[in-house]
């Protein structure tokens, strides 16, 4: 399968790179910008002519957004750096954040504050629906008792 | 830790994380997939919550890299849920699991549209995000107007409008026609006055795509871009939240400067002045700071400013500032900056007059060739390659040679190819060139492709002065203890041809040369032995008067190989033995090889195709093209006027990256047929006589053993068969000079595309035609990608389809002009009406200079594209097979003269043509059964059954039986299979004459242009070319 192959090959290329090297690799005629945060690697494939540093900072921007988001949600987290477990158990939230940041591969918002506000608004919509549903089911269960 | 809020999901994720190995993980995943599948089947019992949970699990499994081929419907159906939580999940999972070509997406178009035009802004956001990420052409056509409305609506909030801008960008990439230029350019200019920086950032990305396609329409945006850039660079009125590490949105700055690079120039003096002030400020005011992120962001802006300055071709002062900066960058500690410094220097080389300034940094660049980071080493290699010219070639090539011994394996092949090309292009004298190539073979024989040694042989053959030198060098290498087999090949060849020129030197008597070569024979493989045999025959011939002892020895070797199992060796041994016993007659037949016709270097072509993986051409490729005409002409240059040719100037206007990877050319083919492209107007371009003479100059691969099976083609003009390719060793050079030479072999490109769905259909120095196809039952949707490779527009572009009767083909409008370095996409709809092997032809022409170029190309809408593999069981197969009892529904034929294939190879061929090979149905292991379904408009989907019976004692004959419910289909399929098994897909077939587009496939053995035409065989030179 294509995705699996890409992941496997790229991991091979990127994981073997030492710590003091540049953040760009050329792979099968494509360019990949990557950055490591502790045990997490973020990668983004770009066109040959794209501005590599700009993309590198999009990655960092995203990480800061995730950090702020998970930092505010989780009580267990004590300090900076979004951790692997946050992302794995909340991969869907990572998607929400990504969708507020990038569309069609282009940056849509560069204000962290705005992104955080929008994700919070979405979360509260989901929460509201949940409460509504549970109160509804309460009413139903009350009524059918 | 489990924050996901869904216990089932968290448990599953924990399970996966606790798996000890991949196998356990796979088992757990399979179990879960089975569970989800069962749940989805009885859908009644699923609450929205459960449905959500399962599609999240599916997405998680998908993320792990597993194939998730069901449940797409469930994900898509969540989109139409009335409540936000379900809808949100539906949209996100759908955009992750499906791609734009997925059928289910079509089902969702209406729902998506309702969300977009509805009043709920959260729904609008979800829909716009999904369409912006995976929307395809159909979305583009049905949604673009609605998205445009949202983008310019005064009642929409920024959160919707910024998504609308990027959504529109995606739709525009899918189909540029959906944005109506006339109405939209003013709106676009208004959008640039936007106060909200999020909306402005998105709009700027949209503008980049729009201007890259057509800058003329968006002139009014230019001054606004400059204003925006000024405002950002001076940090005027930028809200705090839009600064990133103290820098006003670096992304918006970069985008704005990118947009400006698509305008050819800035005319208004005031705007120009303010722009240059800003650029000056960025160039001078960017310092290296401690914080990594701040540093990256400010340098992202700086590098974009450099690119813009390069593009605007600013006053020389600014340009030299740029080079100075880059010179500083390539020596800094920070690896990213080093990498970018090298990369941008390579880009800058396209601005010709900085060449000399960049040369000052040569030493530093050579140091980077030894950088610990392979990414940086690659950039350094590219830069050295790009900056090489006659003045520094010697130094650079010698550095590359030195580096070769220590280079990583991943780079050696590229390195040796580049060294070989540079040596060829810029050799100050030819003996140096020979030295370099021999050293290359000596140091990195494994990485030296055959083309490289073919090329040195061609050179030596065509330059008499060089022959004694080359022979002497070859003799020297033979004395080395362990030499690479390629060295044996090239030395043996050179000494066979030219050792008689060394006769008086010590150690160079025929006998000594012979024993030096013969010593190597036990160490070489069977592909080299034939070359050695030829050499022996030649040495024998050159020994006058004959040396009876040597003769006896050589004859003994020939008779030893007369019974060799390798046919090639056997044939040569027998022939040389017979020829050499004829005495004087031998002289004629084994005379020295004639000169090779000069053609484009196979090596340089290889370098060109090596990097075409991306939509945009890399600088190195551009440069290779620039230098194509300079290739290999050192001697001619000196003799003609002594000055090197000037290098054409290229501007930095970028190709829009509309197509992701369509340009991929898997066609690494080196041989080149004459093709069918010819200039209709034979009037030669008057100005550049030298360029015209030298243009197609450069030679092809050396005649190899495979010469007799090489593809062939007919010159389009008169239809006169010209032996193509290697066999063309005797064709006079002038024949080619008036035509635009195709790059690569048109025939082979066509046959390759018969097997795959995307690739390059045609390429020449001016244009590349790529093709991407999707086939669904009897329908095909093709997109032609017409890419102008030049810096001037291609005019009078015309594309006509000559369809055979069984295909209905509609080509959308092809623009008359292709702008410089732009790519246009032309969709093509195909419908198959009934079975036939005829082929559609694209008649393509454009104006190039003063003459028209015209080419006729077969389109890969061939029979097998309308087949879909299907597996049948024994229970299904036999009744069907029996019920189709005989002609005309079931045909049987014994075919002889098949190319011998193992059953496995045959099965592979079948699979590649969409026939399913059914294992185990036929009890006889020498037989093969296959099945497929054929789709056409006039008959229902038709099951086809095929049986091949082979004879293990004679692989050249077999019996084919084909059965289907339609007589024409049975017949056509039978013929199709015969063609595949009798002729190799690359077998010689002339391209279609325009009047009868279908003729070439129905008659594979057309008498035209057989390579071994009798006239050529009587020529001794050609005969030998065939043998060697």
UniProtKB/TrEMBL annotation, chain A:
It is a peripheral membrane protein. InterPro entries: AP1_sigma, AP_complex_ssu, AP_mu_sigma_su, Clathrin_sm-chain_CS, Longin-like_dom_sf. Keywords: Cytoplasmic vesicle, Golgi apparatus, Membrane, Protein transport, Transport. Coiled coil: none annotated. Adaptor protein complex 1 (AP-1) is a heterotetramer composed of two large adaptins (gamma-type subunit and beta-type subunit), a medium adaptin (mu-type subunit) and a small adaptin (sigma-type subunit). Subunit of clathrin-associated adaptor protein complex 1 that plays a role in protein sorting at the trans-Golgi network and early endosomes (TGN/EE). The AP complexes mediate the recruitment of clathrin to membranes and the recognition of sorting signals within the cytosolic tails of transmembrane cargo molecules. This is AP complex subunit sigma. It comes from Salix koriyanagi.
TrEMBL record, chain B:
Residues 1004-1016 have a biased composition (Low complexity). It is a peripheral membrane protein. It comes from the Eukaryota. The keyword Protein transport applies. Subunit of the adaptor protein complex 2 (AP-2). Adaptor protein complexes function in protein transport via transport vesicles in different membrane traffic pathways. Adaptor protein complexes are vesicle coat components and appear to be involved in cargo selection and vesicle formation. AP-2 is involved in clathrin-dependent endocytosis in which cargo proteins are incorporated into vesicles surrounded by clathrin (clathrin-coated vesicles, CCVs) which are destined for fusion with the early endosome. The complex binds polyphosphoinositides. Belongs to the adaptor complexes large subunit family. This is AP-2 complex subunit alpha. It comes from Salix koriyanagi.
């Amino acid at each position: 399968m294509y995705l699996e192959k890409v992941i496997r090959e790229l991991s091979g290329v990127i994981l073997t790179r030492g710590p003091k090297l540049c953040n760009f690799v050329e792979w099968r005629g494509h360019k990949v910008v990557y950055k490591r945060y502790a045990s997490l690697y973020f990668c983004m494939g770009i066109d040959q002519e794209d501005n590599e540093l700009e993309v590198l900072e999009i990655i960092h921007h995203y990480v800061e957004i995730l950090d702020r988001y998970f930092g505010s949600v989780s009580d267990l987290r004590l300090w900076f750096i979004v951790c692997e477990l946050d992302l794995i158990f909340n991969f869907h939230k990572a998607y929400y954040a990504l969708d507020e940041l990038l569309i069609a591969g282009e940056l849509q918002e560069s204000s962290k504050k705005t992104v955080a506000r929008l994700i919070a608004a979405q979360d509260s919509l989901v929460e509201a629906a949940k409460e509504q549903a549970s109160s509804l089911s309460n009413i139903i269960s009350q009524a059918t008792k | 830790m489990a924050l996901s809020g869904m216990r089932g999901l968290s448990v599953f994720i924990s399970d996966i994380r606790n798996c000890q190995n991949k196998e356990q993980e796979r088992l757990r995943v399979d179990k879960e997939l089975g569970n989800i599948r069962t749940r989805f089947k009885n859908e009644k019992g699923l609450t929205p919550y459960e449905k959500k949970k399962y599609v999240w699990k599916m997405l998680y499994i998908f993320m792990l890299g597993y194939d998730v081929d069901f449940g797409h419907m469930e994900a898509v159906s969540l989109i139409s849920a009335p409540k936000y939580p379900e809808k949100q999940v539906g949209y996100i999972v759908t955009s992750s699991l499906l791609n734009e070509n997925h059928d289910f997406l079509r089902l969702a178009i209406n729902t998506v549209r309702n969300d977009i035009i509805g009043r709920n802004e959260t729904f609008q956001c979800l829909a716009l995000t999904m369409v912006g990420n995976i929307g395809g052409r159909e979305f583009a056509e049905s949604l673009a107007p609605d998205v445009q409305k949202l983008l310019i609506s005064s009642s929409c909030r920024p959160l919707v409008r910024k998504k609308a801008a990027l959504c529109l960008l995606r739709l525009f990439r899918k189909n540029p026609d959906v944005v109506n230029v006339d109405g939209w350019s003013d709106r676009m200019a208004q959008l640039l006055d936007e106060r909200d920086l999020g909306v402005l950032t998105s709009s700027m990305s949209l503008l980049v795509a729009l201007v890259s396609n057509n800058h003329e329409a968006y002139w009014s945006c230019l001054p606004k871009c400059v204003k925006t850039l000024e405002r950002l660079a001076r940090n005027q009125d930028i809200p705090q939240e839009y600064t990133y590490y103290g820098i006003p949105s670096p992304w918006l700055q970069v985008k704005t400067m990118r947009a400006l690079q698509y305008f050819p120039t800035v005319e208004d003096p005031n705007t120009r002045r303010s722009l240059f002030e800003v650029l000056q400020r960025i160039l001078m005011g960017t310092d290296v700071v401690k914080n990594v992120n701040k540093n990256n962001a400010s340098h992202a802006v700086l590098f974009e400013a450099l690119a813009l300055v390069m593009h605007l071709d600013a006053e020389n002062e600014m340009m030299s500032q740029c080079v100075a900066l880059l010179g500083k960058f390539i020596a800094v500690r920070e690896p990213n900056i080093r990498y970018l410094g090298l990369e941008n220097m390579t880009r800058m080389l396209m601005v010709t007059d900085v060449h000399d300034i960049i040369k000052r940094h040569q030493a530093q660049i050579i140091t980077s060739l030894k950088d610990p980071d392979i990414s940086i080493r690659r950039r350094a290699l590219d830069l050295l390659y790009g900056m090489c010219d006659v003045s520094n070639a010697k130094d650079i090539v010698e550095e590359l040679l030195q580096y070769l011994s220590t280079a990583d394996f991943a780079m050696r092949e590229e390195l040796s190819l580049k060294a070989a090309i540079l040596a060829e292009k810029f050799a100050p004298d030819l003996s140096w060139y020979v030295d370099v190539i021999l050293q290359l073979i000596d140091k990195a024989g494994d990485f030296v492709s055959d083309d490289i040694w073919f090329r040195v042989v061609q050179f030596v053959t065509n330059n008499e002065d060089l022959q004694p030198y080359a022979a002497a060098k070859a003799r020297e290498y033979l004395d080395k203890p362990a030499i690479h087999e390629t060295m044996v090949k090239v030395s043996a060849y050179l000494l066979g041809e030219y050792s008689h020129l060394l006769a008086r030197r010590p150690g160079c008597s025929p006998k000594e040369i012979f024993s030096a070569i013969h010593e190597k024979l036990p160490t070489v493989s069977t592909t080299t032995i034939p070359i050695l045999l030829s050499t022996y025959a030649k040495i024998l011939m050159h020994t006058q008067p004959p040396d009876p002892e040597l003769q006896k020895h050589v004859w003994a070797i020939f008779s030893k190989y007369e019974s060799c199992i390798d046919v090639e060796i056997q044939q040569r041994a027998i022939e040389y033995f017979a020829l050499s016993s004829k005495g004087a007659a031998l002289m004629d037949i084994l005379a020295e090889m004639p000169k090779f016709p000069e053609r484009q270097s196979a090596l340089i072509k290889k370098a060109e195709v090596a990097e075409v993986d991306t939509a945009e051409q890399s600088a190195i490729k551009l440069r290779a093209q620039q230098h194509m005409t300079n290739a290999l002409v050192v001697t001619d240059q000196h003799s003609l006027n002594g000055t090197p040719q000037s290098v054409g100037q290229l501007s930095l206007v970028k190709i829009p990256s509309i197509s992701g990877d369509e340009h991929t050319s898997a066609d690494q083919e080196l041989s080149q047929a004459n093709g069918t492209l010819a200039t209709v107007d034979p009037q030669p371009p008057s100005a550049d006589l030298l360029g015209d003479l030298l243009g197609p100059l450069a030679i092809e691969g050396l005649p190899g053993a495979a010469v007799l099976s090489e593809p062939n083609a007919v010159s389009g003009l008169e239809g006169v068969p010209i032996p193509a390719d290697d066999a063309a060793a005797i064709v006079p050079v002038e024949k080619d000079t008036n035509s635009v030479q195709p790059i690569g072999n048109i025939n082979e490109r066509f046959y390759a595309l018969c097997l795959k769905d995307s690739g390059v259909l045609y390429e020449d120095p001016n244009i590349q035609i790529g093709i991407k196809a999707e086939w669904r039952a009897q329908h095909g949707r093709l997109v032609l990608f017409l890419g102008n490779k030049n810096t001037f527009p291609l005019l009078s572009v015309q594309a006509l389809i000559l369809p055979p009767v069984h295909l209905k083909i509609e080509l959308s409008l092809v623009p008359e002009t292709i702008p410089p370095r732009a790519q246009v996409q032309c969709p093509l709809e195909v419908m198959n009406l009934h079975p036939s092997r005829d082929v559609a032809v694209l008649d393509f022409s454009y104006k190039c200079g003063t003459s028209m170029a015209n080419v006729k190309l077969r389109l890969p809408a061939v029979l097998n594209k309308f087949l879909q593999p299907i597996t049948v069981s024994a229970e299904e197969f036999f009744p069907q097979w029996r019920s189709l009892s005989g002609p005309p529904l079931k045909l049987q034929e014994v075919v002889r003269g098949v190319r011998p294939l193992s059953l496995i190879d045959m099965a592979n061929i079948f699979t590649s043509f969409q026939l399913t090979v059914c294992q185990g149905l036929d009890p006889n292991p020498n037989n093969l059964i296959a099945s497929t379904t054929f789709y056409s408009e006039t008959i229902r989907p038709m099951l086809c059954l095929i049986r091949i019976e082979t004879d293990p004692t004679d692989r050249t004959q077999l019996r084919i039986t084909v059965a289907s419910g339609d007589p024409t289909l049975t017949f056509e399929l039978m013929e199709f299979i015969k063609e595949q098994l009798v002729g190799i897909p690359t077998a010689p077939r002339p391209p279609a004459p325009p009047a009868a587009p279908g003729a070439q496939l129905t008659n594979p053995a057309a008498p035209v242009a057989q390579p071994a035409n009798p006239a050529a065989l009587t020529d001794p030179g050609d005969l030998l070319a065939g043998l060697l």
